[in-house]
From TrEMBL:
Binds 2 Zn(2+) ions. Residues 18-209 form the Metallo-beta-lactamase domain. Its cofactor is Zn(2+). PANTHER family: ZINC PHOSPHODIESTERASE ELAC PROTEIN 1 (PTHR46018). It comes from the Bacteria. One of its GO terms (molecular function) is zinc ion binding. This is Ribonuclease Z. Pfam families: Anti-Pycsar_Apyc1.
Length: 307
């Protein structure tokens, strides 16, 4: 599982940064990529990666500001010619997304050769895709903006083969049958499968924010607690808290201090204002703790399995 930031700018693009687009690479787990927000030049960025548009089957829009969606119609159109034919795609986002996209396609007479389903979500929505659940929480921005919490389901621990052999069960297809049932019978004795399993493999949790002021509430903190990775906006890097607040955005130190007790393993800050010179940003990064990254375009981070 990887996070791949393909657009790390706030509002306006710069020469080095395009507007927001984030890939949650689930190829090893689900054989697909989740795409969160589709800034204007997303498809151009994609051309420099090995990501196939036909493997993007679920898109999550945090909010309807242009720097998060203006790349969507273009990408959807191109996907039709890049192996996407007949491959269904689902898009989740706030109310208004369906009207905007439908109108855009009607006016431009765009016809896609694959089915698209648009699901308008709200605070508290739950989405389930294979072994991943996604919880939605409204943030604090000047239009409705969402946090998506991606959580892998926990998995059963590994079978204790030695223990099974001890009671006389030889390796074979029976092992997977045992693992998939709660109890099993051998030589007339009923066994509890849990006694033959290692510790539960905890699912990873990744929290990806839309634009927002730093949020403080118990419900929100519970969603973020013990996350393996939090992706948060930091339109401001330089202690301008009041300015960040008045523009409905965040300042990086503010977010880190508010969330200091949440035991988040790693932070990625993105949505960086183009008024910061790249040289300033690279010097600034050196002042941050080791579990905090500031993204650039093509920034990639591996979210390792829990030990
Ligand atoms: Zn934005
Ligand atoms: Zn915004």
């Amino acid at each position: 599982m990887y996070i791949n930031i393909l657009g790390s700018a706030a509002g306006l693009p710069s020469k080095k940064r395009h507007t927001q687009a984030i890939i949650l690479d689930m190829v090893d787990e689900l054989n697909e990529y989740f795409l969160i927000d589709v800034g204007e030049a997303f498809q151009h960025r994609l051309l420099n990666t090995s990501i196939k548009p036909s493997k993007i089957n679920h898109i999550f829009i945090t909010h309807l500001h242009g720097d998060h969606i203006y790349g969507l119609p273009g990408f959807l159109s191109s996907r039709a010619h890049q192996g996407g034919e007949g491959k269904p795609l689902k898009i989740y986002g706030p109310k208004g997304l369906s009207e905007w996209l439908t109108t855009t396609f009607q006016v431009s007479e765009t016809i896609l050769n694959y089915p698209v389903e648009i699901v308008e979500i709200e605070d508290g929505s739950f989405i389930s895709i294979k072994d991943v659940t996604i919880e939605v929480k409204t943030l604090d921005h000047n239009i409705e903006s969402f946090l998506y919490v991606f959580k892998e389901n926990d998995q059963k621990g590994a079978l204790n083969v030695l223990k099974l052999k001890e009671i006389g069960i030889r390796p074979g297809p029976i092992y997977s049958e045992i693992k998939n049932s709660d109890t099993f019978v051998h030589d007339g004795v009923i066994y509890d499968t849990n006694d033959f399993l290692g510790p539960v493999i905890k699912g990873r949790k990744v929290c990806i924010h839309g634009d927002t002021r730093p949020l403080q509430s118990e419900v929100y903190f519970d969603l973020l607690k013990d996350a393996d990775c939090v992706v948060h906006e930091a339109t401001f890097l330089d202690h301008e808290y009041e300015k960040a607040y008045s523009y409905y955005h965040s300042e990086i130190h503010d977010v880190l201090s508010i969330q200091k007790d949440l035991r988040v393993k790693h932070y990625i800050f993105t949505h960086i204002s183009n008024r910061y010179e790249e040289e300033f940003i690279s010097n600034f990064i050196k002042t941050l703790p080791s579990n905090v990254s500031v993204a650039h375009d093509y920034f990639k981070y591996e979210i390792a399995r829990k030990k």
